[in-house]
Amino acid sequence: MKYKKSQELYNKGLVNLVGAVNSPVRAFASVGGNPLFIKKAKGSKITDVDNNSYVDLVLSYGPMILGHRHKKVQKAITKALKNGYSFGASTKNEIKLAKIVCDAFPGMDKVRFVNSGTEAVLSGIRLARAYTGKDKIIKFAGCYHGHQDALLVAAGSGLATLSLPGSKGVPEGAVKNTLIANYNDLESVKAHFEAHDDIAGVILEPVAGNMGVVTPQNNFLKELKEYLESKGALLIVDEVMTGFRSKFGGAQELFEVEADITCLGKVIGGGFPVGAYGARNEIMGMVAPLGGMYQAGTLSGNPIAMAGGIATLTELKKQNPYDKFNEIAQIIEVFLLESAKKYDVAITVNRFGSMINPFFTDITVTNFKEAQTSDTKKFATFFWEMIKNGVFLPPSQFEAWFLSSSLTEKNIQKVAKAIDKAMEAVSKM
Ligand SMILES: *Cc1c(COP(=O)(O)O)cnc(C)c1O
Asked: Cα dihedral sign for 138, 139, 145, 148?
């Protein structure tokens, strides 16, 4: 059987791990069937424990933008390992990565490294509250900002996939200062400001990737920023997914919008646990030891993770693959649309830079409600047919597919063939 070892490991894993996974999406709950267990990966390819090889369009949900085990990254972390793994004191490489990051984001004078995107955002929110002295935060339905209590409402992919409105275990008090607005709808933000005078700021994904890919329409980001300035509220841009992925300076650079606070993760660590939040001096001056906002971490700025981040970002800047990403995404879009037409399947394709995905719906998708019109059963069939034909996709309708700079012409042909087969399978449902 093709997935025998994965199935065996899954059954073993169920004993001492929750659902045999350490993050829910990995359980394949929304596409059915048993999850794959991975043995190794190199470049554009990932290999499971049964030795099936796939073109990897998951890329660890974004971080592996250079592909797996890029030789420069491998070399840097191997070197760092020789000097020790964690010191509880500062190292030169933290300063080096901080400079790379601050240079890439014009609105960022200082940055603080943490260990995950979740931590970056929860700290960024605390900072916005500390700086403004106000408590309320507006988030958009369908945007995901990690699993902190306050933002675990209307939070996109993981929760949409499991059809949970929020999460159990989150007390009402934890979300009472969270207001929900509709993506691409400035009026829904204004309505909150008319009803409340204690709003610290608005957090959003500048290009949403956790309800599937949804792009900001008609100057949405610029108008939002202008409006917030007029209200003395902060714009918190969660670039955990888009930072260094849509452009070296993130989506802010492309849309010419400067965040007050920027949150980073994923690509910044190149596969190691790194998150970061940053802002101009005036705001970062609130953070301990300079100011009265406490935030700390035993492993923050970990030397191996810093080495991985520096090597990844340095190589990424050198490669500058962003035009190539656009071209490849466009090619994949055409494959999707043409095969959907050939087999008479209704789809909408959204893409932005190196993020793309089809929605199995016949309407355009500009917010969470529209994304949810997708036929997730069709996606499940599509997903498994892609797997059978050697393409590893995120196992959810509401996750973006990611491109790496190590994709080859041959890989893209393989993706095209798989799409044709998968679309045919969907048409026979
Ligand atoms: C992945 C993600 C997070 C959470 O990051 P983790 O490292 O998984 O904690 C937060 N915000 C966005 C936009 C993300 O895509």
From this structure: positive
Other beta carbons less than 10 A from residue 286's beta carbon: 18
Question: Domains, the chain, ranges and CATH?
Answer: 4-65+321-427 (3.90.1150.10), 71-318 (3.40.640.10)
Beta-ladder partners of 402: 355
Cβ density class 43-66: b for 16+ within 10 Å, e for less: bbbbbbbbebebbbbbbbbbbbbb
Write the DSSP symbol of residue 31. T
307-340, pLDDT tens digit by residue? 999 999 999 999 999 999 999 999 999 999 999 9
Q: Which atom of ligand 1 is nearest to the CA of 205?
A: 13
Mean pLDDT of 352-370: 96
User: For the chain, how big is the Rg over CA atoms in Å?
Assistant: 21
Q: In whole angstroms, give the CA distance from residue 18 to residue 193.
A: 41
Atom of ligand 1 lying closest to residue 210 CA: 15
CA distances (Å), origin 193, targets 28, 182, 373: 39, 14, 29
Return the exposure string of 1-17: e unless at least 16 CB atoms fall within 10 Å of the residue's CB, then b: eebebbbebbeebeeee
Query: pLDDT tens digits for 76-91?
Result: 999 999 999 999 999 9
Of these residues, 3, 54, 144, 322, which one is catalytic?
144
109: region left, alpha or beta (phi > 0 left; psi from -120 to 50 alpha): alpha
Q: Which residue has the tokens 């992925």?
A: 245
CA of 88 to the centre of ligand 1 (A): 25
Q: What type of residue sits at position 49?
A: V
Identify each DSSP E strand in 255-393 by its residue range.
261-264, 275-279, 348-352, 355-359, 391-392
Buried b (16+ CB within 10 A) or exposed e, 190-213: eeebeeeeebbbbbbbbbbbbbbb
Q: What is the Cα–Cα distance from 380 to 290, expressed in whole angstroms?
A: 50
Q: How far apart are CA 33 and CA 342, in angstroms?
A: 28
Pairwise CA distance, residues 22 & 16, whole Å: 11
Give 177 Cα–ligand 1 centroid separation in angstroms. Answer: 21
pTM of the model: 0.96
Using the mean position of ligand 1's atoms as its centre, give its distance from the Cα of residue 340 in Å.
Answer: 31
Ligand 1 closest atom vs CA 119: 9
- Residue 9 φ/ψ, nearest 5 degrees: -65, -40
